[in-house]
């Protein structure tokens, strides 16, 4: 089971946000977004959401720095659960494609980042 081990409980707007997201997901929404300012407890809220739903979850971050930070925080909050980290080394990736309506072939193109 997914279990959060934190020295604190949801507070402020967090319980309401968790309830709202659980309700939306359980009523069939496949994709939900939790938005909030820096330092408002989005990571902990998400961990408690995962704990309530008991579902594997994919979390996407816009850059490697935030992804690494979030991964470390989830590993702290959920130490008995598998938390995996994947980073694409492409800045840009266009798979090859064919558009039959215009008989257009698009070659594969990519740009690997320097990091």
What does this structure look like?
The chain is of the alpha+beta class and 115 residues long. The protein has a domain at 14-83: P-loop containing nucleotide triphosphate hydrolases (Rossmann fold), CATH 3.40.50. 34% of the residues lie in helices and 13% in strands. The chain contains 3 helices and 4 strands. The chain has helices at 14-26, 42-53, 64-77, and strands at residues 90-94, 97-99, 104-106, 109-112. Strands 1-4 form a two-stranded antiparallel ribbon. Strands 2-3 form a two-stranded antiparallel sheet. β2 and β3 form a beta hairpin. It is elongated and about 55 Å long. The mean pLDDT is 94.
Main attributes of the structure:
115 residues; alpha+beta; Rossmann fold; two-stranded antiparallel ribbon; elongated
Give a brief rundown of this model.
The chain has 115 residues and is an alpha+beta fold. It has helices at 14-26, 42-53, 64-77; strands spanning 90-94, 97-99, 104-106, 109-112.
Instruction: Please mark out the parts with pLDDT under 50 across 5 or more consecutive residues, or reply none.
Output: none
Q: Element order, helices and strands?
A: HHHEEEE
Oligomer: single chain
The value of Rg in angstroms is 19 Å
The total strand number stands at 4
Derived structural class: alpha+beta
CATH top level of one domain?
Alpha Beta
The CATH homologous superfamily name of one domain equals P-loop containing nucleotide triphosphate hydrolases
CATH architecture of one domain: 3-Layer(aba) Sandwich
Remind me, CATH topology of one domain? Rossmann fold
Mean pLDDT across residues:
94
Number of helices: 3
């Amino acid at each position: 089971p997914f279990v959060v081990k934190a020295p604190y409980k949801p507070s402020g707007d967090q319980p309401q946000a968790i309830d709202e997201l659980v309700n939306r997901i359980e009523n069939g929404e496949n994709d939900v977004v939790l938005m909030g300012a820096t330092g408002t407890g989005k990571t902990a809220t998400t961990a408690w959401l995962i704990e309530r739903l008991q579902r594997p979850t994919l979390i996407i971050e816009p850059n490697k720095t935030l992804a690494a930070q979030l991964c470390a925080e989830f590993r702290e909050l959920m130490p008995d659960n598998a938390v995996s980290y994947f980073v694409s080394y492409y800045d840009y990736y266009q798979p090859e494609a064919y558009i039959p309506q215009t008989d257009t072939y698009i070659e594969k193109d990519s740009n690997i980042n320097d990091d």
